[in-house]
Design goal:
By secondary structure, this protein is an alpha+beta fold. It is built from four helices and five strands. It has a five-stranded mixed sheet with strand order 1-2-3-4-5, sandwiched between helices. It is globular, with a radius of gyration of 15 Å.
Length: 147
């Protein structure tokens, strides 16, 4: 098992898993848009993308965005995407990806890693994050203004 930061050389692998991730969430994303989105993230380096490989097979990916926590005055990582292909789940691939996110957070001096997941339809993901040390924030509600 190897987790590596994605570069343009791994664009095809990143796009393949990103499309599977979008299908999982039934986003209706178009393949050409998914490719453009991932390519832009890699070229502009406005996110950190990691890929997990078992032998030569890309089996998981994770995307994090860097921002700031004004209250602590420290960097914050927002773990926005994490996906492991269904046939490879329950093999600790997600754990390896989370460990890499924690290492990145330490490396950049972040105060925390934040994520959100569906409250009702994602019980396995919620349990997975809790087992990896994440705590449910019961003090804040999340609001969105859709454009």
């Amino acid at each position: 098992m190897e987790v590596m930061e994605a570069t343009m050389e791994q664009l095809d692998d990143a796009v393949d898993l990103f499309e599977q991730y979008l299908d999982f969430y039934k986003s209706g994303g178009a393949p050409d848009k998914a490719r453009q989105f991932m390519e832009e993230r890699l070229l502009t380096k406005d996110s950190d993308i990691f890929l997990a490989y078992d032998e030569h097979l890309c089996v998981g990916f994770m995307q994090l965005y860097r921002c700031w926590d004004s209250v602590s005055m420290k960097k914050l990582l927002f773990l926005y995407d994490l996906f492991v292909i269904p046939s490879e789940r329950n093999k600790q691939i997600g754990d390896h990806l989370i460990d890499r996110a924690k290492q990145l957070a330490r490396d950049i001096g972040a105060g925390m890693i934040m994520l959100q997941t569906h409250k009702h339809n994602n019980v396995y993901a919620r349990r997975f994050y809790e087992l990896n040390g994440f705590e449910l924030d019961e003090d804040f509600d999340v609001y969105n203004f859709m454009l």
